Amino acid sequence: MARNSNEEPNGDSNVDHRQQRPVFRRVGFYMPFMILLGIALPSFVFLIMMQINGWKLPLIGLQNMVARMAPSSSNVILYASPTSKAYFATIGGNYDTLLNPWRSYFKDRSIQAVELNTPAELNKQSRGVLIVPSALALNDQERDAILSFKAKGGGVLATWATGTRNGSGDWAGWQLIEALGAKVVGELPADSEARQLTLTGESPLSFQQPAGTRIWMGKTTESLLRLTGESVAARFMDWQRVLDENRRNEGAIVFSETTPDSGRAVVFAFAETNWESRPFAPRQLIDDTLKWLQRQPSIVRSAWPNGKIAAQVIEMDTEQGFQNASAFASMMKSIDYRATFYVLTSVATQFPELLRALAKDFEIGYHGDVHVSFKDQPAYTQEQRIVNMKAELASVLADTSTITGFRAPTEGYDTTTEIALQKHGIRHHAADPSRLEGRLPALVKMDGVAVEDSLVVLARTQRDDINLNHEKLDIDQTTKALNDDFDLALETGSLGFLSVHSQNFEEGSVLRSAMPAFLEHVQKKKNNVWLSSSGQIAQWWRDRERVSISSSVAGKRLDFNLTVKGNLPINGMTLTIMLPQKGVLPTVRSTKVGTYVPRIAKLDDYRAVVIFDNMKPGDYVYQASF
């Protein structure tokens, strides 16, 4: 029987004709969209995953869905107050003198700052950072606009005596400064030598500069103010970095964050004219300050291991009165501290038993062969002296291979000395307070010398017994001076380095009587201070130098990469993170599977530390989420 021409070849007339069409014909109109989706979706997922793993992506998509997010706000506003401009003109001044350093800074940093000069314009702004430079005279509308900006979440940086006069130029007091979190307690006398702006180490406002860095403020007609506030990023000190007793709780830069919703505030106790002639270090200080005001997280290598805030060395220059080293050693043992004894070798060899006892329990270093300065002596003479001192100790001690520290007699040395020390296996030397600009150790860079073998300089940072004797202090006063110097090192994140002379440690001496109370004070704060020998400090500084770090901000995420060079692991490596939100710790994770996850600890309300118990050489990638 013949088939009907309308029937399907298989004879099943109920089958849908569309099911027999080729796949591409059945998809029809939707096929291009499905192809695009098949390509786009995996690509989108890939980009998301790679961004999570540290890639920096271009700005694409709706509201930059896969883009690197911008900081909280990069809006920087310079407020050029017309009221202040008019006031300065009445007293023969020019307000542009105070504005121009900021304009130069913006140009140097390629910052597209907005310069405003009316409160109405300022009221239109929200978020970002507002800089109010030494605006002495402000009317009520300007004051309200500044405080309103902060209340809306914007950061405010005010300098010098901003707002101390009203719209008519009459005295108005310090109310605006106080509203920004600072209290003015006076001015430094015009003849004061305490004109070194001395920075706190790893402060949220000064983390690019080493602890104790000095910035000369110059002597200008604009006075230096004395401030107190919630947190201190810098203090006014003299060249020796001794803080006046009456100003221990004061600061030259103070900062605060009152509530999570309102903006942050910073007050500089000095005018722009105090730093414009030497702008390098101040500009780095401003860089850090603006980042903090913008709530941009930052991360740096910490100065000290295992989350410690500061470090302390207590050492004895052991020369005349060598026998007094025994009493000093007993005190150090009482706090379980391995102190350093720099021994004058020509004297030390006269007390072989005591020298051996010291070498058993403490670190031994060289104090030269005789008590004569090395400075300006010919290179051959200096080298011969180093050879002599090493030979003298080797005649008493069985093993001198671990004796690699040096302290020049009378703190007298020069570049020739440092080259000779490096050549003859010395790996650190304790120097005078003026050797370094900061109060941290430093590596001496020499051609052909690897980091692992570098000579490390440890500058004396505390008043020694000779300084204190000149001040004619009694026992209680000496204890207080020792405590104050120690506390200052702790507060600034510095290396505290106390030198004691054996000849001034005899029984009944003021120093010997004051020492036990000082050591008790140190013990109370040992959780925050690394009490270490000179050699341990030097070795840590070489280890620390083997670690490099790079970072970038991606919205509420901080990506950071670490590289550990060399052949040996590093124990206790610590990083300091400046927090974008007061008291809120980040979550830190590695983007490499199986990588060690570090410990996170709160340092204070504005900083956290990331602690690596053990880091082997290699590359590491981490993210901190806030």
UniProtKB/TrEMBL annotation:
Residues 324-427 form the NodB homology domain. The keyword Cell cycle does not apply. Pfam families: Polysacc_deac_1 (PF01522). The keyword Membrane applies. The chain crosses the membrane at residues 27-50. Keywords: Membrane, Transmembrane, Transmembrane helix. Gene3D superfamilies: 3.40.50.880, Glycoside hydrolase/deacetylase. This is NodB homology domain-containing protein.
